[in-house]
Amino acid sequence: MKKLFKSTVLLLSILCMSQHIHAQETKILVLIHSDNGGTYTLAQEVAKGIESTGKVKADIKLVKSSSNSSLKDIPVATVEELTTYNGIAFGSPIYFGNISTAMSEFLSKTVDLWSNHALEGMPATVFMSAGSGAGKELAIQSFWNSLAVHGMILVPSGIMGNESIDKTVPQGNTVLGTTSLASLKNVERPTKSERYLAKIQGQNLSKIALALKGTYQSSLITKGDNQEKNIDEVLKEKKIELPTVPQPAGSYEPYVRTGNLIFINQVALKNGKIVNPGKLGVDINEKQVNEATRATILNVLSVLKDAVGGDLNQVKKCVQLTGIFNTKADYTQHADLMNVASNLLVEIFGDKGKHARATYGASSIPVNSSVEIQAIFEVE
C-alpha cells in the first residue's frame, strides 16, 4: 500500500510538472478568415516569422470552416481559447474598406472576454488581403478599433523591410500591417515582397510577445467575480445548461467519493447518443472534437452536481483533469483540444476551476467517443 501511495504521489508530481512546463510555452495564434487562400498564404509567412527564433510556436486557425480545398483541413478557433495564447495575429480579406463578415461575426462573440478584461495587454497585429488595394489602411484601422476596445497592444509594421522589396511591382504593404493586392493581373499574389513583409511582421510580433509575456493576466476570468457568486447564477448568466446525469453502462458508478475528493469519468454522450463520434483526422475535424469535449465536460459537471447534492457551491477546487482523445498516431495538439474543458471550468468556478492537467492520445475510446475526460474535485 505504501508503494502504491508513493507511486501515485510521483505520478501526480510528474503530471503537475508537465502542466507547468506546458504553461511556460509561448504561443501565438494566427487567426484568419480567407476566401480564396490569399490571406492564408500571408498567414503561413506570418507563422514562419513567428517561429523563426525557435522560441515561439504559431498556430494557424480559421474563424469559420471553409470548403476551399486549401483551407478545409485548417482547424477552427473558439473564442474561449484566445486567452490561452501570448499574442494574436489577425488576418482577413478587405470588404469595402472593412473587416470581412466572418471575422466581424467572430469578434462579436468576444463580449465576455471584453467584460472580463481577458485580452488586455496582449499584443496583436493585423494583416489583410485586398482587391485593388483601395481602402486597405481604412480596413486595418477599423480592425484596430475592435482590438483597441479589448485593450490589446497594437503592433504595426512601420517601414520594416521596405528597403528590400521589389519596387517595380505594386505592393500592398502599409505602415499599419502587410496587405496583398489580390486582384492585379499577371502577377503572383501575394508577391514575394508581400510574403517577405508578412514574415517580418510575424518576427516582430514574436519578439514583442516574448517581451510582454507574464506582464498581463491572460485568463478568461481575471477578477475572480465568480468565486463570490452562486454557481447556479453563473451558469444562468452564461447560459450554460447542464445535461441529465448520464447513467452507467456497466457495473460501476457515475462517481466515487472518498473523503473530500470526488472522482468522475465521462465521454461525449448527449441525449443517449455520442456527440461527433470517431477519430480526429479520419472521421471528424478539430471543431467537432471541440464540440464533443464541451459536451463531455458538461457531463462531468452534471455528475459533480449530483455528487454534491445539487449544490455546486460546495466545490472547493478542481484538482486534476485528464483528457484522452481518439486521434491518429502523429497528432500532437491534444492540449489545444483540452483547453475547451479547462477554460469552461475557469469560466464557471474562477480560481477554484484552475487545475493540474494531462492530455493523451488513444487509438480508440469506448463507444467510439472522440474524447474521454477524467476529473478529480475537492469539495466541502
UniProtKB/TrEMBL annotation:
Q: What is the name of the protein in this document?
A: NAD(P)H dehydrogenase (Quinone)
Q: Which Gene3D superfamilies match?
A: 3.40.50.360, RutC-like (3.30.1330.40)
An example Gene Ontology molecular-function term: FMN binding
Instruction: Report if keyword Signal is assigned.
Output: yes
What UniProt keywords apply to this chain's record, in alphabetical order?
Answer: Signal
Can the keyword Electron transport be found in this entry's annotation? no
Q: List the signal peptide residues.
A: 1-23
Its ancestry begins with: Bacteria, Pseudomonadati, Bacteroidota, Flavobacteriia, Flavobacteriales
Residue ranges of every copy of the Flavodoxin-like domain listed in the record: 28-205
Q: Which organism does this record belong to?
A: Mesonia algae
Domain of life of the source? Bacteria
Q: InterPro entries, alphabetically?
A: Endoribo_LPSP/chorism_mut-like, Flavodoxin/NO_synth, Flavoprotein-like_sf, FMN_Rdtase-like_dom, RutC-like_sf
